[in-house]
Fold DUF2993 domain-containing protein.
Amino acid sequence: MRALRISLILLVVFGVLFTVADRLSLMFAEGEVATRARSGLGLESEPGVSIKGFPFLTQLLGKRIDHVELDISDYGVELDGRQTRLEDLSIELRNTRIAGDFSGARAERASGTGVLGYRELGELATQEVKEVHDSLAVEFGYAGEGQVIIQVTVLGQKLVPEMTADLVLHEESQLVQLKVDEIPSLDGLPLVGSGLEDQLREWVDREREIRGLPEGLSLDGVEAAENGVNLAVTGTDVGLDGA
């Protein structure tokens, strides 16, 4: 009995030591991944990193991490060549191969989501429509049922009715388009000149490109929500450090 008791005590001690070593290794690895991601993706601060699965040491020895979650609060992209920000970009990476010193990491597949806020979209859209006429401005909002509201103002006066649009992703070209049935009439606003409705229609129907997503990721879906336009991204052979 004494020998059995000693064996059980040693087993518990070794188990605790292994768990502590595993958690310390995990914390170190998450810090290294965060540092590499910040540098490789050009982030202003380190992203949140969470490596899933226990034990971690067996994954580290095999140089393959099953599941990594990367949370980036603010990520720069381009919408039709104009700088804007993705909020709350969250990326899940699966089966990530790593170098021994974390100098390189690539995931077999990845998926994630990010948000284009309505305020930022309105600012970008206003820059665009001022090229049509400098009296125009645009605001975006949520219309419900996956649609967005487009509120155009002319000389500070809101066009009625506001436009309601569906969001369409053309997967092959990776272009996003607004689908609006009718453009509000401008008959009561003679000061802005003729032909403006046709120019507004052309602006609304324009296909738009989002560039600058992390290497290996592409758009998989767009959907309007209360907090903005949600972008779904997916990819294979994704570089964790942007390489």
User: Anything to note?
Assistant: The CA atoms of residues 119 and 140 lie 7 Å apart. Residues 2-41 form the longest helix (40 residues). The chain has two domains: 2-114, 119-211. The radius of gyration is 25 Å.
